[in-house]
Each structure stands twice: as C-alpha cells, then as structure tokens.
C-alpha cells in the first residue's frame, strides 16, 4: 500500500498533549495522533483520534484506560471533553501487550486503515484475548504495506 499525501489529507499531524489547546479544527473528518506527554517531555504513549461532525474515535492501543498510562494527560482530556460536548465518543479494546513499545505504530495503522474500514472493523484485525500476538500482526501489516 503506497502512502501518498492526498490519500491522507484529513491527517493533520502529531502533537504533544499540551499543543492540543491551540489546535483549531476547521474541517471534518480530521485525524491526529497525540502523545500523553507535554512537549517538554520525551513522550511515553501515543493515541490516535478521529473527529467527525458527530463523533470522536479514540484509538488507544492501551484501551483508553488512564491506569495503563504513565501520567494523566490533563490537556488531552480537556481537549477531548470540549469536543465531546457535541459528539458521541467511541473507544476500542486494549490491543497492546504490557511489554510492547509499538503504540506509535498502532496509531499509524489506525490512520492508514481507517480510510478503508470502519472503526469497529479495525479491531477484528487483532486478537483482543491474547495481546502478545498483536505486535506480530502489526509487523506483518507494515511489512506488506508496499
């Protein structure tokens, strides 16, 4: 699968959680990747967010459970709260195993695959019972994505 800029024109970039306060969204759908750390920190965990007129999709490989995160990202949660006032929020199950460091790759997978399949269908690509298998599934996806 070749990645071209016009294919992913709704992707607006990667942000530290404290950079989301200044973000102005002007068209939908919009996709972004955010780190739960602020810009002064080294970055600890990535999540992907898809925003449309009526819903927010939060693709967190750790299942959007703050107890799995190294810190509480107050700016990120505030950003999501502001958007959720007029939108329904969808989250998915945990996909990432405790010893995996591939959260960024999971979020890139979301941005690429979401163009072609529904949010719910994305999770059918992974094993939600045996999380240790998912890094290999992700590796195979990127290995074959030419």
Structural class: alpha/beta
Discrete helix count? 4
> Could you tell me how far the N terminus lies from the C terminus, measured between alpha carbons in angstroms?
4 Å
Taking strands numbered 1, 2, ... along the chain, how are they ordered across the largest sheet?
Answer: 1-2-3-4-5
At the fourth CATH level, what is the homologous superfamily?
Adenoviral Proteinase, Chain A
Uncertain segments of ≥5 residues (pLDDT<50)? Answer: 1-6
Please summarize the sheet with the most strands: 5 strands, mixed
Query: Regarding CATH, which class?
Result: Alpha Beta
Output mean pLDDT.
92
Tell me, what's the shape?
Answer: globular
The figure for the number of domains is 1
Number of strands: 5
Provide the gyration radius in Å. Answer: 15 Å
The ordered H/E elements are EEEEHEHHH
Which range does the strand content fall in? 15-25%
- CATH topology assignment: Adenoviral Proteinase, Chain
The CATH architecture name reads 3-Layer(aba) Sandwich
Question: Helical residue percent?
Answer: 10-25%
């Amino acid at each position: 699968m070749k990645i071209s800029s016009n294919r992913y024109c709704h992707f607006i970039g990667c942000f530290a959680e404290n950079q989301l306060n200044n973000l102005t969204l002007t068209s939908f759908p919009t996709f972004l990747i955010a780190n739960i750390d602020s810009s002064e920190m080294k970055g600890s965990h990535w999540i992907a967010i898809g925003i449309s007129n009526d819903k927010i999709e939060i693709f967190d490989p750790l299942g959007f459970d703050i107890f799995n995160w190294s810190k509480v990202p107050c700016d990120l949660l505030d950003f999501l709260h502001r958007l959720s006032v007029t939108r329904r929020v969808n989250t998915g199950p945990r996909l990432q195993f405790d010893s995996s460091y591939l959260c960024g790759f999971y979020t890139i997978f979301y941005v690429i695959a979401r163009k072609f399949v529904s949010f719910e269908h994305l999770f059918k690509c992974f094993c939600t019972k045996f999380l240790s298998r998912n890094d290999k599934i992700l590796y195979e996806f990127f290995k074959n994505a030419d």
